Amino acid sequence: MSEANAPQQRADQAAGTIEALTKQIQQLKAQRDAVILAHYYVPPEVQDVADYVGDSFALAKLAVDLPQQTIVLCGVEFMGESAKLLNPEKRVLLPEPGADCPMAHMVRKADIDRVRAEHDDLAVVCYVNSTAEAKTWSDVCVTSSNAVKICHALPQRNILFIPDMNLGRYVAEQLPEKHVILNKGYCPRHVTINRQQVIDLEEAYPEAVVMAHPECPADVLDEADFIGSTKGMIEHATASDARDFIVCTVVGILRELERRNAGTSKRFHFPATTPRCVNMDQVTLPKVAACLRNPAPYEVHVSEELAPAARVTLERMLEYAAK
């Protein structure tokens, strides 16, 4: 292999591997009566092999309605748990069982018990990015796309929002009639985005639309022209006539942004410290194939002790979101 031709040959080999794995995955999927769901943050080649790509709310809804008896959830642990909770009779596979969400663990039951003791009129609202156990401590789950709607609909004035303080703060700003109590959790990926990085991009692209996920810090949200979930940002950019977009969320969203806007002159710019979810990045095509070949080590289980109470919070989320 000549030095000049080496990069192209390596690219061709990689493409060949992806093509072979994709074919193998399609065959295994048919054998297992499986459907592949992928979050917007996993690697592009995994999104490409998925039957459905979406944010956590869209995937949660889909999992309930799909006829296949095996669900391959290309995401992190709490997503696999949620799919299993909503589909207890189905087999749910997580291609990388070790892929976790640090924020999911950033809440303590002692803090929830303390706030419950201080307020008779309280709803504990749990971001879906949480463990099954944390969901059992809560009254209802929400996602970034429906948190404001559900919190508004709750009869309680006092809301303890767990685990993400940034999304909780955003909800509080949208609902001044509610008393929102914040937990100290955060997304380690979104907090790497800072206001100066956004300002630097605004100076480089003065006509750009700034889009931010509500998990971002408050001063980043202050710079945003649009605040919304991953799905919300994708739809906003697709509907907009703007050419440039500053995107304040995990870079995995780029695949869907480019797919939806193919053939346009739209450009998407990410902060200098490009936000990457190292846990989502662990989900790879070889692992998707492996879990379909030998499902047992990849199967998601939620203990019978936790499942009933955790399931209720997710079912309530779907009920409130449908109203």
TrEMBL record:
Cofactor or coenzyme needed: [4Fe-4S] cluster
Listed InterPro entries: NadA (IPR003473), NadA_sf (IPR036094)
Keyword Iron-sulfur on entry: yes
Keyword set, alphabetical order: 4Fe-4S, Coiled coil, Iron, Iron-sulfur, Metal-binding, Pyridine nucleotide biosynthesis, Transferase
GO biological process, one term: 'de novo' NAD+ biosynthetic process from L-aspartate
Signal peptide start and end residues: none
Pfam family for this entry, one: NadA
Gene Ontology, cellular component aspect: cytosol
EC number(s) on file: 2.5.1.72
Name of the top EC class for this enzyme: transferase
Biological pathway: Cofactor biosynthesis; NAD(+) biosynthesis; quinolinate from iminoaspartate: step 1/1
Coiled-coil features, chain-numbered ranges: 11-38
MF terms in GO: 4 iron, 4 sulfur cluster binding; metal ion binding; quinolinate synthetase A activity
Protein's recorded name: Quinolinate synthase
Gene name for this UniProt entry: nadA
